[in-house]
Amino acid sequence: MANTPSPTIRRRQLGKALRRERENRKITLKGAADWLDTTTSNLSKIELGKQAIKPSHVRLLMQLFDIGAPESDTYIRLARESNERGWWASYSDTIPEWFETFLGLEADAEELRTYTAELIDGLLQTPRYAQAIVRTYWPQISDDELQRSADLRQARQQQLRTPNPPVLKVVLNEAVLRRPVGDVEVWKEQLEYLVAAGERENVTLRVLPFSAGPHPAMTAPFTLFKFPEGYDMDAVYIENERGALWLERPADRARYIDVFDRICSLALSPEETSHLIANLAHDL
Questions:
Q1: pLDDT the model gives residue 97
Q2: Gene3D superfamilies from the entry (predicted)?
Q3: How high is the pLDDT of residue 175?
Q4: Is the preceding omega at residue 70 within 30 degrees of 0, hence cis?
Q5: What is the number of other CB atoms lying within 10 angstroms of the CB of residue 173?
């Protein structure tokens, strides 16, 4: 994870704190929005961490909540930090706004648990595999845009090589390995990269074989985010074609943790997974 929290984390921390302060004082969302001369929709997005808030607006809320220094100074500092640009801002022309939230949280997570049914996880994709996938989604994409998309994945992967990397646990449906992407050279390179990635201490890779039969993750792929103690940000991420769903309720997180644990129990061991993938690459 990053040495310092990203603007995304700061924004979500601040939003939760401001909501807590408002509710503790029995102030309605509309009452606080009117005080700021904004809409309830905008303030709701701020409290949910979906939108940054100006430090000047935080000062106004401190007045409404009757919060003085030094506590008010902490909130104002958080507002400034939440408005900073994350490393992914330089790629904003290639990614939708909703995916920026994912990148910010991914950069701060101490553990990522992912189940993928069709694609190799972005943190484990080679550049040429990534380009083949993107070209399939958007056939009209320019060469420059295609390269930028692949560069973004490579930038994301740098966090796995930091001195304090996150733990990455990935379960791949066997279908991912049985559906070649790109030509033989591209596909073999990707398979060999998976084998090498699985040898890292912070990466655990498992394959859920067809022989496992029905399993509890058949509805959709997902990613579980776990953050350092005190962040109170753990969440489940479920992506679709036009956006993403974030589940943060304890009951939802517990359900998906159970699902992930159960598919791990059905999956091949990391050693068996490495052997399977190596054989597939060798046979090409």
A1: 77
A2: lambda repressor-like DNA-binding domains
A3: 97
A4: yes
A5: 24
List the beta bridge partners of residue 208.
173
pLDDT at 91: 80
Residue 9 has pLDDT above 80, yes or no: no
Closest CA to 138 of 98, 100, 95: 95
Confidence at residue 167, expressed as pLDDT on a 0 to 100 scale: 95
Q: What tokens were used for 5?
A: 């929290």
Structure tokens at 23: 């509710």
Q: Select from 278, 214, 227, 284 the least CA-distant residue to 253.
A: 227
Domains and CATH numbers, the chain: 7-82 (1.10.260.40), 88-282 (3.30.870)
User: Rounded distance, CA 65 to CA 27, Å?
Assistant: 9
Pairing of strands 203-208, 167-173: parallel
Residues found in the chain: 284
Q: CA 118, CA 69: separation in Å to the nearest integer?
A: 52
Q: Rounded to an integer, what distance in angstroms lies between the CA atom of residue 78 and that of residue 244? A: 26
pTM for this structure? 0.78
Q: Is the pLDDT of residue 161 over 90?
A: no
Average pLDDT score over residue span 189-194 = 97
Spatial CB neighbours of 72, under 8 Å, sequence gap ≥ 6: 58, 59, 62
3 state SS for 5-31: CCHHHHHHHHHHHHHHHHHHCCCCHHH
Helix (H) or strand (E) holding 254, with range, is helix 250-266
Please state, in angstroms and rounded to a whole number, the distance separating the CA atoms of residues 176 and 116: 8
Q: Per-residue pLDDT for 5 more than 70? A: no
